[in-house]
Amino acid sequence: MNDSLTQRIQENMRSFSKGQRLIATYIMEHYDKVAFMTASRLGSTVGVSESTVVRFATEIGYDGYPELQRAMQEMIRSKLTIVQRMDVTRERIGDNDILDTVLGQDSDVIRRTMEYTSHDEFYKAADTILAARKVYILGARSCQALASFLAYYLGLLLEDVILVQATSEAEIFQQLIHINENDVVIVLSFPRYSRKATKAMQFAHECGAKGIAITDTAASPVAKHADYALLARSDIAAIVDSLVAPLSLIDALVVTLSLKKQKTMDPTFKRLEAIWDEYHVYEKVDNENTEKDDTKHAEA
């Protein structure tokens, strides 16, 4: 359990009312369930009013129950097993429509990312990437897809981009063997944090390279050895890690880099378009028929 939250509860335990002690005890024993309960639900579970739950949150130093709840959610995401994730998702969705619920959660994490991420860190990280000799990109497990996406687009913008294959620690270090102070490593890691990603960032740091962590919190293991931490909220949806906010952050990073290099990249992009046309890389699409088909599906 989060040391800060545990400490807050323990320090205030003697001053709690009887109802607040019931809440505190239940949180200590069932924090994985409480993290996704409404204040009303928690109150009815332990036998107190919703207002008592709200007062409890402010009593231990939070602005309100939503902030306490977010603190618990951040705390447990790196600890939940896949079985617990299924239980949490089932509890959160209940009788609600699954599609609407998941899309709503994704919209919420993007909104919270906008409020949370540092603009200063973001633009400094972008300038650091542009100044690098080589850019190494690594993401393990579910973050491999994000790393591949980022590497593809940076490969269009920069001369030397290396997507590190996170198959084993030995192979990761082998691929990073020539990294030095002129290079940048971008490591993507979200709960449950990959040990390989953390060790790769540490290795790059020890070699003098600049490190950029794309992760969910400054307390993330991969952020500890990074020069810049680009923070994006993520969420749990059963066995799936919701990574829409990290992907949106990556989109913003690619757009930033492309605009900063616009003058030098225009000839490259024109040449790329000519190559794609010559070798028929993309299918030709009849937009008029596509719009008709979309209208039929929407009316169905």
Automatic annotation (TrEMBL):
Domain HTH rpiR-type: 3-79
Pfam families membership: HTH_6, SIS
Coiled coil: none
GO biological process: carbohydrate derivative metabolic process
GO molecular function, one term: DNA-binding transcription factor activity
Assigned keywords, A-Z: DNA-binding, Transcription, Transcription regulation
Keyword Acetylation: no
InterPro entries reported in the protein's UniProt record: Homeodomain-like_sf (IPR009057), HTH_RpiR (IPR000281), RpiR-like (IPR047640), RpiR-like_SIS (IPR035472), SIS_dom (IPR001347), SIS_dom_sf (IPR046348), WH-like_DNA-bd_sf (IPR036388)
Stored SUPFAM superfamilies: Homeodomain-like, SIS domain
Residues in SIS domain copies: 125-270
PANTHER family: GLUCOKINASE, RPIR-FAMILY TRANSCRIPTIONAL REGULATOR
Designated name of the protein: SIS domain-containing protein
